[in-house]
Design goal:
This protein has four helices and twelve strands; from the N terminus they run αββββαβββββααβββ. It is 21% helix and 36% strand. It has 221 residues and is α+β, with helices and mostly antiparallel strands. It has helices at residues 3-25, 90-102, 168-173, 178-181; strands at 54-61, 66-74, 77-82, 86-87, 106-110, 126-132, 135-146, 152-157, 162-167, 196-200, 205-211, 214-219.
Length: 221
């Protein structure tokens, strides 16, 4: 082997050794910048403070000309107070609130310098307004025009310059009629135990009586 080839091989070995030391084997320095922190998560649509809870919810559909307002009676129980006074499907209304609290803001953008008609905020097609137990000022989420880059729409909180996107499924969840949100329980029974049930039709009559843990037929036999 010539001396030139020997020098070339030694240079390659030195380069490989230096690369290994600086990139693999170099001891950790406590002064080096090191962080395991993840990127900050996207904010949720509705941000609530400690102990803050939604106690009024209004869905205003400008396209249909409808407005429905719900009031929280107690935990897990809601009532329609406009346009009628009637018990609501409480699980459904709790679902609306959870959707606002858990859904993340997607593609947040600044609306500074932009005009409302560009995103349909001059005449929102849907308003979702909330009141909380700590804030008597109504806060309304305005749904503007359809998004140009995805299935969904532009939305913003009234009075804020920032806007973001919501998916089509989010909008469909709030597309409800008064009938769909009113409680449709046929029998509004009291807390007392049921002791008998009677059923009549044109052809038969049936009566059941509850004794202990069993139901007995009293009529027709």
């Amino acid at each position: 082997m010539s001396w030139r080839r020997t020098c070339f091989v030694l240079a390659l070995l030195a380069l490989a050794s230096g690369f290994y030391y600086w990139n693999v084997h170099r001891p950790f320095s406590p002064d080096a910048a090191f962080s395991l922190a993840q990127e900050p998560a996207r904010e949720r649509i509705l941000k609530l403070g400690p102990g803050e809870a939604v106690d009024h919810l209004t869905i205003r559909d400008r396209a249909q000309g409808t407005e429905i307002t719900f009031r929280k009676i107690r935990e897990g129980e809601w009532r329609i107070i406009h346009p009628v006074d009637y018990p609501a499907e409480s699980a459904l209304i709790d679902g609306f609130v959870s959707l606002l609290k858990l859904t993340r803001r997607v593609r947040r953008l600044s609306g500074e310098g932009l005009k409302d008609p560009e995103f349909g905020f001059d005449a929102p097609r849907l308003d979702i307004c909330v009141l909380t137990n700590q804030n008597l000022n109504q806060k309304c989420l305005e749904v503007g025009s359809e998004a140009a880059v995805a299935k969904g729409a532009y939305v913003r909180w009234r009075g804020e310059s920032e806007y973001f996107l919501v998916e089509e499924q989010f909008l469909k969840a709030f597309d409800k009629t008064l009938y769909s949100v009113r409680r449709k329980q046929i029998f509004d029974l009291l807390d007392g135990a049921i002791t008998s049930i009677q059923f009549r039709s044109e052809t038969q009559k049936l009566k059941l009586r509850h004794t202990g843990k069993e139901w007995l037929i009293e009529k027709p036999f």
